[in-house]
From TrEMBL:
Gene3D superfamilies assigned: Vaccinia Virus protein VP39 (3.40.50.150)
InterPro entries named among the record's database cross-references: Methyltransf_25, SAM-dependent_MTases_sf
Protein name: Methyltransferase domain-containing protein
Pfam family, one: Methyltransf_25
Domain Methyltransferase: 52-145
Taxonomy of the source species: Bacteria, Bacillati, Actinomycetota, Actinomycetes, Kitasatosporales
Length: 229
């Protein structure tokens, strides 16, 4: 996001921000975020440096900072609105929780060998060109570090995931309410695996998290990969 780009996340999460200021007791990786595996997928975070890519209001990052004893969790998001909400909700958790407004790729390039674990819950991995993001993530991870992310297994309208590295355009709104679109990368499992391999990751695994019932449910992919030692 540049200074001249509209913040397409301006409206996201505002209702919850006004009514729920708690640190979550848990979080989940499936699309509905109500089932399947939880934070244990990240492993033991005691004493580690962790980064949330596309953290939004930093609720997942706040949970980890409070309940999992990392040395630091860095919640990174390019959206001014999301950064402001995160700071309002959880700024008091500093220094263990650090809330950063930044383009994720730029932040990762600036922090070579900084992180032990990077993760994204339908966050920046979904909304950033993966051929830029994944190599940057490998650069920012220490040798043997782990990247974990959940991403859509197919589009919310039911159309299949892309068989190559192409984005889809999804509806969005500018801060003043004007209709527009944003890019989202909804890719088939083998495409993610190939991209991760090319970016220098090994021990790549993908689990399918089935969606629930309803018109806008979706299967999710839970992807884990390690930076080469």
């Amino acid at each position: 996001m540049t200074p001249h780009t509209a913040d397409l996340w301006h409206h996201y999460g505002r209702t919850r921000h006004a009514t729920d200021r708690t640190v979550p007791d848990d979080f989940r990786w499936n699309w509905e975020q109500d089932g399947g595996p939880g934070p244990e997928v990240l492993g033991d975070l005691t004493g580690l440096c962790v980064g949330d890519l596309g953290a939004g209001a930093a609720r997942h990052a706040a949970h980890l900072a409070v309940h999992h004893r990392p040395v630091r969790v860095v919640a990174i998001d390019a959206s001014p609105a999301q950064h402001a909400m995160a700071t309002d909700l959880y700024g008091h958790l500093a220094p263990r929780l650090r809330i950063v407004r930044s383009d994720v790729v730029s932040h990762l390039h600036a922090g070579r060998d900084t992180y032990d674990v990077l993760y994204s819950v339908f966050g920046a991995v979904d909304f950033t060109e993966p051929r830029a993001l994944l190599p940057a993530a490998a650069t920012a991870l220490r040798a043997g570090g782990r990247l974990v992310f959940s991403t859509l297994g197919h589009c919310l309208d039911g159309s299949p995931a892309q068989p190559d590295v192409r984005h889809v355009d999804i509806p969005a709104r500018t801060p003043d309410g004007e209709a527009t679109t944003m890019r989202r990368w909804v890719l088939q499992e083998q495409v993610w695996v190939k991209l991760l391999d090319e970016a220098g990751f090994t021990r790549i695994s993908v689990d399918v998290l089935p969606g629930g019932e309803g018109p806008r449910t979706a299967d999710a992919l839970l992807v884990t990969a390690y930076r080469s030692s």
